[in-house]
Design a protein that fits this description.
The protein has 14 helices and twelve strands. The chain is α/β, with parallel strands linked by helices and 346 residues long. The protein has a single domain, classed as Metal-dependent hydrolases (TIM Barrel, Alpha-Beta Barrel). The longest helix has 19 residues. The strands form three sheets. An eight-stranded parallel β-sheet has the order 3-4-5-6-9-10-11-12. A two-stranded antiparallel ribbon has the order 1-2. The protein has a two-stranded antiparallel sheet with strand order 7-8.
Length: 346
């Protein structure tokens, strides 16, 4: 299928259109392993051509792909490495085949730290993906746990862009009240992970990490004052590990607005983050296209945002995180390269 390019293009890059930092996919070779459930219906049929058609209809110039489904869905306990490698190479192939239309956050085989470090080197160094996606927890090991320090140190050294995505907590059967985890558990698990990243000292040790928090920060914008106060009073060592104060670290993060474009959600996150720290996200295909369209309309009509704010949120802020997408970007940074080495998963 011929490459689509919405609006004016310069140097092979879309010069207009939203940049979607919350766009999901599952590689074709893994789709058959997914459960037959309505929540996965958009994942089992995902392909780049269908994604491009949706993007064109919704005015999305570029989608930064992330594979966020827990690896346990795909078979044996040792599937994590295979899933990560397949996902990362599929994202790289989509970028190569459709320059400027796709980016990719690398999937990592955590909680295996050694395998994750090897995959970071391959995905960012060889495939040259745009960053990594980290789940809020891996089998109950939360971001900020000391066992993950080598991963964060490596990502900080690389000044990596990291997209955080919620996962069901280990106790989801006891806390979800029988509802799907995405209903309420996801925003609370985001809050758990971000709080732990701050109070564990991870954000203090990793000042060059560029971390994107989904869904307007979960419940973080509403709870930041409570977390800051109670941590200072009652969490031993919090002021040593996070000497700048919790709120200072959280103001340094980026927040994307998937399923969070209403005045209620935007008003809350704007109390914590300037418009320069906000990004657009669709959450497709987890959301139907009709929902994506509706939420874009809500964002466009949000009375809390000026046209200049929306331009930053929908495109300009993301260009600063992903400079290869700029129309005048050097050709040496506009596409991943295929490795000549053995690409079997570690």
């Amino acid at each position: 299928m011929a490459q689509r390019e919405p609006g004016l293009t310069i140097g092979g890059q879309p010069a207009s259109g939203r940049i979607d930092v919350h766009a999901h996919y599952v590689p074709a070779d893994l789709q058959a392993s997914l459960p037959a459930a309505p929540v996965f219906r958009g994942f089992v049929t995902w392909n780049p051509e269908a994604a491009l058609e949706m993007m064109d209809r919704q005015g999305i110039g570029t989608a930064i792909l992330s594979m966020v489904l827990p690896t346990a869905m795909f078979g044996a306990d040792d599937a994590a490495g295979r899933v990560a490698r397949s996902s990362n190479e599929a994202a790289a192939e989509a970028i190569r085949s459709h320059p400027g239309r796709f980016g990719g956050f690398a999937c990592l085989p955590l909680p295996d730290v050694d395998a994750a470090l090897a995959e970071i080197d391959y995905a960012l160094g060889t495939l040259r993906l745009d960053g990594v996606v980290l789940l809020t927890n891996y089998d109950g090991v939360y971001l900020g746990d000391s066992s993950l320090d080598p991963v964060f140190a490596d990502l900080n050294r690389r000044k990596a862009v990291v997209f955080l995505h919620p996962a069901p907590p280990a106790s989801v059967e006891n806390t979800s009240l029988g509802y799907m985890p995405a209903l309420i558990e996801f925003v609370f698990d985001t809050t758990r992970a971000v709080t732990h990243l701050a109070l564990s000292g991870t954000l203090e040790r990793c000042p060059d990490l560029r971390l994107i928090i989904p869904h307007a920060g979960g419940t973080i914008p509403f709870l930041v004052d409570r977390i800051s106060l109670l941590a200072a009073r009652f969490v031993p060592g919090a002021q040593t590990r996070a000497p700048a104060g919790v709120e200072t670290y959280l103001r340094r993060l980026f927040y994307e607005l998937a399923i969070s474009t209403t005045p209620h959600a935007v008003a809350s996150v704007l109390q914590l983050a300037d418009p320069q720290r906000l990004l657009y996200g669709s959450d497709w295909p987890a959301l139907d296209e009709a929902d994506v369209h509706h939420l874009i309309q809500v964002l466009d009509s949000n009375p809390l945002l000026q046209p200049a704010d929306r331009a930053k949120i929908e495109r300009q802020n993301a260009l600063e995180l992903f400079p290869r997408l700029k129309p005048d970007a050097p050709s040496t940074v506009t596409a991943p390269v295929r490795s000549d080495q053995d690409t079997k998963a570690p």
